[in-house]
Write a structure and sequence with these properties.
This protein is mainly α. The chain has a single domain (2-86), classed as 23S rRNA-intervening sequence (de novo design (two linked rop proteins), Up-down Bundle). The chain contains three helices and no strands.
Amino acid sequence: MRRAAVSITANIAEGYGRFSYLENIQFCRQSRASVYELRDHLTTAVDVGYLNQKKFQELDSLAMDAVRLLNGYTRATKKLKAASSAV
């Protein structure tokens, strides 16, 4: 779980540091995949009894907030790419 969580922010940072918009978008997609990986680990933690349902719902809601933020950031980056291509 820790590895997946760290991967989320690490991919965002690495994508931001890349040269092109397309590379940035690809790293955002990888970050989004890490959020889904983390959600799977949370589901497993509930299944084996390490996490109660209430805490799971709280953490899962935060994870989905992260997905929405990443989706918005990706859309904004695509718009920047389109605007830079139009010039």
